Amino acid sequence: MQLHLAVVLLCATAGLFAIAGAEDPYRFFDWNVTFGDIYPLGVRQTGILINGQFPGPDIHSVTNDNLIINVHNSLNEPFLISWSGIQQRRNSYEDGVYGTTCPIPPGKNFTYILQVKDQIGSFFYFPSLAFHKAAGGFGGIRILSRPRIPVPFPDPAGDYTVLIGDWYKSNHTNLKARLDRGKKLPFPDGILINGRGPGGASFNVEQGKTYRLRISNVGLQNSLNFRIQNHRLTLVEVEGTHTLQTTYSSIDLHLGQSCSVLFKADQPAKDYYIAVSTRFTSRVLTSTAILRYSNSAGPVSGPPPGGPTIQIDWSLNQARSIRTNLTASGPRPNPQGSYHYGLINTTRTIRLANSAGQVNGKQRYAVNSVSFVPADTPLKLADYFKIGGVFHVGSISDNPYGGKIYLDTSVMQADYRAFIEIVFQNNENIVQSWHLDGYSFFVVGMDGGQWTTASRREYNLRDAVSRCTTQVYPKSWTAIYVALDNVGMWNLRSEFWARQYLGQQFYLRVYTTSTSLRDEYPIPKNALLCGRASGRHTRPL
């Protein structure tokens, strides 16, 4: 009997993985998600731990690896993890946001089956439901190049994940309850560096050696500036793209953004401050970590290094200087510059304007006047099972029309293999940060004022950086080009987490009539079913 059960389980497991690349390596992860006491800012609060860790464990992988991640939900509420920047090629079912994936019920588990197909770079994962992100549950993802693919810099002596983000002393349940009452969140209480408050994290280096830092802004509300006392930072990678190796004294990371920098430990042997501070805020929050030389002659001294505070032009000029290294290889041997995006005619322009306002006396945020409300069934499942009444395509316009904010489950349709232009128009006084699941896009332009067709004359059509998260400065616009080569239901959202929670998001349904596996994988055999999809069947194991 035991032998028979083992054979059944083995066959079932093999069936689950059948859609992943058979020739590529597998990496297995087993995660237990729990609540636990944490003290990042010196007071006890409830955090979300993964295998007892806050932040969660790093995921180390190589281009094309299959990642089999078994998540046990030991919380007392539903839970989901999403994988920021992982493109889920042909497989939006695994994206881990509520529009694509049913939550893992309390006391149950779900196995994500991901492939980091044709990707390299630095990313992160995070919990996507119920404002859980304010409690932790996030961690770094790194995708290394395959051994025979050249990387445009020597192997560093060390490679560190650095997760930075603003933080509240209040439990996530209190923050969520405040938002549910229609109130705005207050200014955060501090900044965490790898889950620690000021002076809590440290990084060890040896004099004369070069190190890589993979930095992600996993915070909730604020753009952040990162710097190391008396050291220069050379940018080498942004969200999967090798960049021109420009050197900066400090670097801005907006919400949800990731990058890699190299620095050389070339200063006198002692301890140095790593400083992170808020940008574009009247009150500046600052936190520190320690860079510790192995032969350190003493502790940190003096004040932490200062950085830019409210200067927008400084940040805009830095953003424009981040460009693709056209001769470097990406995940494949061919140069990144071999894809000439600037020579492709766009087939559609979508203009998106964010806004804030009241609906029925409660605070809401919107895109083109539509404030997103989740349906009772994940949109991708409703689409697959052809369940009517869950959403309707075209519930959000291609252009802002300036009307009052209203509630809807907003879904925009786009054609598979179209090449489109998206313009983010920000008429508000704060920086916006936008993320598109399932894709990287070319950030071809950004400037102040209103976008017009004449703005296209400013576009960078040669070496714009390709990434998945972009900022839009106050009273400004940002334009991107996207090749819609990934069928699925993809979340386009604000990374300002309260705004996302209260409606500043929608889903882009990249659609084809084809049912070929070359275009989209079938629903996973182990997919959880909920809402109006409950009781239906995926595929036989």
TrEMBL record:
Please give the SUPFAM superfamilies that the UniProt record associates with this protein: Cupredoxins
- Domain of life of the organism encoding this protein: Eukaryota
Q: Which GO terms describe its molecular function?
A: copper ion binding; oxidoreductase activity
Q: Which Pfam families match?
A: Cu-oxidase (PF00394), Cu-oxidase_2 (PF07731), Cu-oxidase_3 (PF07732)
Q: Is-annotated flag, keyword RNA-binding?
A: no
Extract the InterPro entries matched here. Answer: Cu-oxidase-like_N (IPR011707), Cu-oxidase_2nd (IPR001117), Cu-oxidase_C (IPR011706), Cu-oxidase_fam (IPR045087), Cupredoxin (IPR008972), CuRO_1_AAO-like (IPR034273), CuRO_3_AO-like (IPR034275)
Residues in Plastocyanin-like domain copies: 33-146, 159-296, 376-513
Under Gene3D superfamilies, the record lists: Cupredoxins - blue copper proteins
Listed A to Z, the keywords are: Glycoprotein, Signal
- Signal peptide positions (record): 1-22
Is this entry keyworded Glycoprotein? Answer: yes
Q: Which PANTHER family match?
A: MULTI-COPPER OXIDASE, OS04G0561900 PROTEIN
Q: Provide the family line.
A: Belongs to the multicopper oxidase family.
Its recorded name reads Plastocyanin-like domain-containing protein
Species this protein is from? Gossypium tomentosum
